[in-house]
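Weekly modeling sync, notes
Attendees: AB, CL, MP (scribe)

Item 1: holo prediction request
CL wants a bound-state model with phosphoenolpyruvate before deciding which constructs to order. AB pointed out that an apo prediction alone won't tell us much about the pocket. Agreed to run with the ligand included and paste results into these notes for async review.

Input as submitted:
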Amino acid sequence: MPDPTTRDRPVILGNWKMHKTPAEAEALAGAVVAGTAGLAVDVGLAPAYPALLSVGAAVRGSRVRLVGQDAHFEPQGAFTGAVSARMLAACGCSLVLVGHSERRLHFGDTDAVVRRKLDAVLAAGMAPVLCVGETLVQREAGAADSVVREQLEAGLAALDAEDRERVLVAYEPVWAIGTGRTATAETAEAMHRVLRRAAAVIAGEATAARLSILYGGSVKGDNVAEILAGANVDGVLVGGASLESGSFLDICRNAA
Ligand code: PEP
C-alpha cells in the first residue's frame, strides 16, 4: 500500500462532496483505477458515506485509496446523522479529511472540534488530512499567514511526535474553493512555505521536512503541473474537477 505521507510522489485526492450515488461513484472509481494504473501518483477518492462500500470494492487491489470526507470525534453514541472514524476504517478508509472549510462554514467545526476529530482519526489507525485556509476577507486584511499558522498549531501542537508523522496538511484558500479562482503557483508555494516553517516550530525540522502539504482550490488539468512545481507543494486536493473521470484523469496524468 503506498504511503502518501512520504512526499515521494504527488498525492491527488478527489473530494466528491455531496455528489454521486453508490452506483455512479462505483463507475467513476472504476474509471479512475483503470486510468491511473501505472501513473507515478498516489490517488485517493473521497465519496459520500453511502458510496464508501461500492467505491471500496472498485478500488480494492489497486493503489487508489479510499478517503473519508469527515468523521465525528466520538467513537459511537447518540449523534444522529454522524459517522465515526472507526466506521470509516471498517469501510476501508485509510485517509480522512478533517477541518475542510465547508465543514467549518456550514457545520460549525471549530479548531477545537477539528482537534478532537484528528485524535479520533489517528486513534482509528488512519491518516488525517488537516485542511487549513484563509477567507478572502482575512487575506485582504493581511492575515492569511497568521490564520493558517493558527489552524495548523491548533491541529498539531498537542499531538505526540508519532501521530504528527501521520498527518497530511491541505492548504485550501477558501476564496479559491469551487470559485474557479486558483491561487497563483507563487501564492500557493509561499503559503506552503509558511506552513512548513510553522510545522518546524511545532514539530521540529525533521518532521516538517517529511510533512506532505497539498494545495486545494479550483485545481484543473491545465494548472496542476504549475502548482506542483512549487518545492513545498506535495499534491492536490480536488473538488469540482474530480467529479468526471476525464477532468480528474487529466490532473493525474499532468501531475505524474
Ligand atoms: C475542495 O473542496 O477541497 C476543493 C478544492 O474544491 P474545488 O476543486 O472545486 O475548488
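Recorded for review: The radius of gyration is 17 Å.
Action items: CL to compare against the apo run; MP to circulate these notes.
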